């Protein structure tokens, strides 16, 4: 049960003054909480933190106020000049003065009665807003604040600026947040006193008050002690709940997956290559997990081309040997089919029955697959999101693999695990996520890493080329084609909403067809599934030798004899994405080239990005650089500005706190596994505050 002292924060926002259902809907767009299953509460407003401030401390006097500056002025009201009758396009002007000069306060579509009341002639008032100079005359259009001088102390000289959404007035939001703050009850301190001293953390309540009522721009910086305190609260709540969930998972499930090794041997015998020692190492770790009655939750991290698929296949074979079924989920249809076409033949030779299920299988075919999964005649299924569908039932799903995990949410991870009796889980990612991010994005998983590439690979030569040299490039491509090489030509995705007109894949395809005729193929996201397959197959088999593509080929696509990749508008892509794209070549034994075609002039970040890529092929190094250049949200392929899964913590500022929180949480739970000590009780409050109470429920379930 939720500690009752938190009740005042768990009321709907509509219970605040000035917040009706309409404003509540707008507020729901700005509070950082996940509101899919509930309405916004007063407490959510506390965590809606300002992104900047408006500094109104500048009080230069009228004549010395610079154009465009935000100023606060002490003035006396001289006269009102309403617009001529019937002409609403002329503004209402109120003339005021101070020691330095005169100015107009300008109001469009003004309410005269209100202005007469707010700005009576002869009154001494304080106004704050943006200064505008027009033909040598100063004015302030719609001041943000107007107050009588003797009541002006309430005027916020440092004003927090919150994220806004259309229709939501800053004042309304500020007022609602103020009310939420006022409702904040006295709470026990859940943080360790020694840590607080060392980090100079204020209390939870003080931290919130300081950020929402800043006295200085520093106060709303993520680096301030107040913000760090809240970030630490949030991170600790996350770490404690992850640790509780994990302890629970470990305790409850028990199933050792172990077989006779016959199929695995058969598979290994059919492989046309030897596994690298990293692959062997990862398999040893996976095997050990599977053999244990505990549930496996392991991340397989391997740079593009490091050979994750075969590791997954061998692990799936083990699950089948142990009498279960296995599922492999891919983020795109292309990828699912590619896995099917590489894994299928190998697996078949080893006596495994493999099927593919995507949105495309319909009617009889689909029914046949669903039956096969339910009666157990299908050992391994490869698919897309379609595997999450209600109708998909397994006889005994013992092992689930999720490829390129960052495209799937935790939610979907749970959806697939729910289809079996706590199946072992292997998550594969080619995004070389730094360790700190693994912990936050994936939770406390075990990690195996493929640190080497299969033998015989040659480094990829990466060059940058300004778009002016397009003709030259086409000449080089022509030579390469004469030598029998295969070329990817990547164009940025053109979204309909995109205001900048970029060369679309279609246009590039048409242009290259002019040069090279039917040897040029095209694949993009808006094509039908079958057309996409057809385009990929034609390229793989060599019927087409230049494949113009959008980023649909970004993840995982494997055509080992492609040796050149041209990335058009390279400046538009993120570093991680460029690295992924480049990884489409250099997969065979021949030397490969990546051409980053860009439109000058390049901005500073874009220049830095492209040079990192030119200098390095090491995915981990690139990821670290990416983190520095962009902030980690985008690294994971999300659009949100903050760190995924967090409302307050931002890893580019608070990564150091993560390690501290991990050991803090671990120590806490070793000493007090049921959270019954004084600190344990306070930690429960923390878990509720940050919506991590599902972990508290686990405590009760025992
Ligand atoms: P990724 O880790 O990017 O998913 P893949 O699993 O697609 O990489 O493997 C990339 C390519 O390397 C494939 O063509 C695969 O057949 C090949 N491959 C995998 N392991 C080895 C190995 N040990 N030796 C040689 N080639 C390998
Ligand atoms: Mg892959």
**CATH architecture label name of the largest domain:** 3-Layer(aba) Sandwich
CA-based gyration radius: 31 Å
The CATH C-level name of the largest domain is Alpha Beta
Overall strand count = 21
What percentage of residues falls in helices of 4 or more residues?
25-40%
Catalogue the unreliable spans: 495-501, 631-642
Separation of the first and last Cα atoms: 15 Å
- What are the bound molecules? adenosine-5'-diphosphate, magnesium ion
User: What's the assembly state of these chains?
Assistant: single chain
Corresponding CATH superfamily of the largest domain: P-loop containing nucleotide triphosphate hydrolases
**SSE class:** alpha/beta
Chain-averaged pLDDT? 86
* Biggest pleated-sheet summary: 7 strands, parallel
Give the count of helical stretches: 24
- How much of the sequence is in beta strands? 15-25%
Q: Specify the overall morphology.
A: globular
User: Strand order across the biggest sheet?
Assistant: 11-12-10-13-14-9-15
Topology-level CATH name of the largest domain:
Rossmann fold
What does this structure look like?
The protein has 702 residues and is of the alpha/beta class. It folds into 4 domains: 4-54 and 163-221, no CATH class; 57-155, Beta Barrel (OB fold (Dihydrolipoamide Acetyltransferase, E2P)), CATH 2.40.50; 262-450, Rossmann fold; 460-616, P-loop containing nucleotide triphosphate hydrolases (Rossmann fold, 3-Layer(aba) Sandwich). Helices cover 40% and strands 18% of the residues. It has 24 helices and 21 strands. It has a 7-stranded parallel sheet, sandwiched between helices. Strands 16-21-20-17-19-18 form a 6-stranded parallel sheet, sandwiched between helices. Strands 2-3-4-6-5 form a 5-stranded mixed barrel. The protein starts with 20 loop residues before the first helix and ends with a helix. The model is unreliable at 495-501 and 631-642 (pLDDT under 50). The structure holds adenosine-5'-diphosphate and magnesium ion (MG). Magnesium ion (MG) is lined by residues 308-309, 403, 556.
